Amino acid sequence: MQSETARLTSPLPAVNDGARHGANPVGPSLATPRDYFETLKPRVMSLVVFTALVGMVVAPGHINPVIGGVALLFIAIGAGAAGALNMWYEADLDAMMSRTMKRPIPDGRIQPGEVLGFALSLAIFSVVALGLFVNLLSAALLAFTIFFYAVIYSMWLKRWTPQNIVIGGAAGALPPVIGWAAATGSVSLEPIVMFLIIFVWTPPHFWALAMLRTDEYARAGIPMLPVVAGERETRRQIVLYSILMAPVGALPYILGYTSALYGTVSIITGAMFVMAAFRLRNAPEGEATERAAKKLFGFSILYLGLLFAVLLIDRGFGLSFGQLTW
């Protein structure tokens, strides 16, 4: 922990002030396609596409594979647009954090105005195309998701309240609902349950990461929970949300949507998540806390991916413990 603290508190390299504050470049843009692609937050986009796919596949009925593929493409573009808008608005914060300072804008590889125009174009295109080629409900949900992430979360919640990630988590939880709506033209209880799983999972997942970057968030002036309430309260909140998340993760089985396969996996991994949260709460301060936070953060990614993968297998492909049921 001492080495991590020393790294976090060491002086940051200089960044391109013009790129941070929106000065126009001199001459033609030097940004590469890779720079533009990085602004889309491809790792976040991949999670969005996966959970949207699960929502689409587990929905009742059958969607034309071409329409389904087109829908996923437009959802991915919309998710990328939201990520690029977030990068545009948070370039000043990204420049002050080692985890994000090499992103294209703070690194001076691309101008903020270029990212803004690129993001708005993709956002409008993805929503209009999804409405024209799929249905209006999925397009409306995609538009709301982009707005919520770019405006409500990025421009308001993140800089003003330690509950930013709790409320803002709604944006990341909507993709399976969009996928369901793309397949059915409606929304029912089952996609709302998938929404709740991601929504309740987000705070303990992100707070575990925030505990590893507390000094950076403080330096950037971002009121993350560890900065505002301290490490002890953050650990307590992680435990509380983890205890809530375990039964929520099992809801598809409890409500009768899935077989015992999903029920078994969700109950076992939910219990493991709670145990990891308690280990973090009880870890001594210093390197033990850092190790416990890293383990919880890593397991949280595995947990969500596994739940949705099993949901896809169990509900989407009709498999239960390897046996065909369709």
Automatic annotation (TrEMBL):
Converts heme B (protoheme IX) to heme O by substitution of the vinyl group on carbon 2 of heme B porphyrin ring with a hydroxyethyl farnesyl side group. PROSITE patterns: UBIA. Pathway: Porphyrin-containing compound metabolism; heme O biosynthesis; heme O from protoheme: step 1/1. Belongs to the UbiA prenyltransferase family. Protoheme IX farnesyltransferase subfamily. It is an enzyme of class 2 (transferase). Keywords: Cell membrane, Heme biosynthesis, Membrane, Transferase, Transmembrane, Transmembrane helix. This is Protoheme IX farnesyltransferase. The gene is ctaB. The lineage of its organism: Bacteria, Pseudomonadati, Pseudomonadota, Alphaproteobacteria, Hyphomicrobiales. The chain crosses the membrane at residues 44-63, 69-89, 110-133, 139-157, 164-186, 192-212, 238-255, 261-280, 292-313. It comes from Pseudorhodoplanes sinuspersici.
